[in-house]
Every structure is written in C-alpha cells, then in structure tokens.
Amino acid sequence: MAAAFLETGAMSNSPSATAAPTMRAISQDRYGEPDVLEEVRIARPDPGLSEILVSVRAAGLNPTDWRHRTSGLFVNRLPLVLGWDVSGVVEAVGFGVTRFMPGDEVFGMLPYPDGVGSHAEYVTGPARAFTHKPAGIDHTQAGALPLAALTAYQALVDTADVQPGQQVLIHAAAGGVGHLAVQIAKAHGAHVIGTASAAKHEFLRELGADEVIDYRSEDFTEAARDVDIVLDPFAGEIRARSLELLRPGGTLVSLLPGAAAGEQERATTLGVRVATLLVEADHAGMKAIADLAEAGRLRAHIEATFPLAEAAKAHALGETNRTTGKIVLIVEGHDTP
C-alpha cells in the first residue's frame, strides 16, 4: 500500500504550516472477523516514479481480501488497507509516465500481493498495471473486473493457450473468477463445461456455457471426459480427480497450492501438465480484458454493491460463499454510475 498512516503530532502547529492532504480508507490494525475493518483518515499518497495516482470510483472485492483480513496470508503487515481491484480517474502522474494524463478514466489490478490498498479514496500504482476504462462500461463494472478477469485470462490464455474447439472444464463456474472464465473461454472459441449448483445453471447458459454439471448431484468425472483444459479454484480431491479427465497434452490450472502426493508423477504418466497460478499485474492482459468488455463479450455479474464505509458488510456477504459473480465497493462523493 502506497499510503503512510498519519502519526499523532506529525503536523506542525505553526499557522504557516500546510496540512498534508488526507483521504478516507478502510483499514485494520488486527486480524479477525469483518468487524476489524474500520474507516480511518490516512495520508493521501503521491505517485512515485512510473506511477499514477488514481481517484478511486469503485473497487471490487475478492476472496483473497477476506483471507488477508483474517490471517495476513501473503501481506504480513498491520495496519493494512485491503483491495487490489480499482477503477477511477487519474489524479496525477509520476515522473516517466507517458501512457496516461490527469483526467483519464482507468482500471486495473494493483501488483499482487504487495501493491494492496485500493479500498480507499485514492491509490497509487504502476502505470502499466492499468489501462483505459472502456467507454461502454461504468466504473462499477470496471471495478469488478481486474483481479478475477486477469486470473481467468492468465490461466486460460497465457498458461493453457486455449484454442478454438477445445473442451474447457471450469469448476465453480458461477463464482467471481469462474463466470468470467466462461466468457473468456467462449470468446476464444472453446466448448465450455461448468460446474455449479443447479440454481445457477441458467445463469451459466446465459453466459455461453455449453454444458453445466450440478456438482451436488452429479459426478463431474462421469459427466465430463477428454477435456483439454481444467480451471480449478480448489485443491485436494477435486484437483486430483480432475487430472484424470485431461486428454494427453492437456493442462490443469490450479488457483491454490496443495498438490496431492504423487501428483506430478501421475501427470507425467498421463502426459498432461499441472500449473499453479498466482495472478500478476499485467498491462497487456488488462488491455485484452478491456477489448473484450468494450466488444460486449465480457461482463462482470454484480451480486451487490456497498459504499466504502460498509466494507465490513461486504466482507461478511462474500464470506458466505453463496454469492454469484462479484461484490463491489463504491467510493461515495463521486459521480459513480
């Protein structure tokens, strides 16, 4: 996070002293339940070399936010302002930035994990972590896309090299990453099979899924065979069983660590590849996502929006694991659609 917390007594009492600009942010000073999140005022950051300062209009939530809230996960520091998704307006640019200028509408993912801090009124990040927001989508929609869409894109396109006509199995296909992965795979001409509860099957068909599997009543290993790519947000048994569905030369992309004993040996025997992905900030990926969104081929389903001050409520909803698509924080005081 690029903002430093204000220290008591840090400002001069001199009448000539100019108060440093501050901003509202959602911070935590301990790990725990959603109630550890509180609205505070902290110093507004300045853009460094090759950085931009973004006035945040909307910022999505992802499961990694509540995992970091409860344990720190990859970012082990307190106090902590969470958030990697951001859509907003460029307020200022640092030295060396040529791609953007103040007033540009942009969206992107802050470098994961250490670039965290978008659940605030302003945030800084590398210019090349962003791209221009498509004119055809609003900030709420744009704020929902970056981390989840980049994860899906980097898994399917960069890692598995999805091709037209290939069969792609997407587990948890109605989730934040999953529902965007369905659309990205379809945009690349794949035959998409998604797993989800029966209540979400029609939603997946509307997104373009060719086949849907009710994971509660069907054995996905019987319903899907000879697939080219598996996108697996889980670990353990589902990952191990999914490996057996791949054709020789196929790829399983996992979003969590947790390889079973002997997994690599089994993959070698089957002639398939297993890759574990950690999403990266990526201008080229964001540009591809922006192009798909502008063309109407990629859209985030928004389960709910909350004002920034109600971040704790947003976390509580997300942790139910019953949501479809994305939850987005809206920064009040801006003209956000």
Notes on the protein architecture:
This protein is of the alpha/beta class. It folds into 2 domains: 22-145 and 300-330, Medium-chain alcohol dehydrogenases, catalytic domain (Quinone Oxidoreductase, Chain A, domain 1); 148-276, Rossmann fold. It is built from 10 helices and 16 strands. Strands 3, 5, 6, 7, 8, 15 and 16 form a 7-stranded mixed beta sheet that branches. Helix 3 packs across helix 4. The two termini are 27 Å apart.
* Proportion in β-strands: 25-35%
The CATH architecture term of the largest domain is: Alpha-Beta Complex
CATH class call of the largest domain = Alpha Beta
CATH level-4 homologous superfamily of the largest domain: Medium-chain alcohol dehydrogenases, catalytic domain
| Overall structural domain count | 2
Number of helices: 10
SSE class:
alpha/beta
Rg result: 21 Å
What value does the average pLDDT take? Answer: 92
Low-pLDDT residue intervals, each spanning 5 or more residues? 1-16
Task: Please give the number of β-strands.
Answer: 16
Features:
2 domains, Rossmann fold, Quinone Oxidoreductase, Chain A, domain 1, six-stranded parallel beta sheet, seven-stranded mixed beta sheet, single chain, alpha/beta
Secondary-structure map:
Blueprint: E1 22-28, E2 38-43, E3 51-61, H1 63-71, E4 80-81, E5 85-93, E6 105-109, E7 122-126, E8 130-132, H2 139-144, H3 146-159, E9 167-170, H4 176-187, E10 191-196, H5 201-207, E11 211-214, H6 220-223, E12 227-232, H7 237-243, E13 246-254, H8 263-270, E14 273-276, H9 283-294, E15 302-307, H10 311-318, E16 326-330
Helix pairs in contact: 3-4
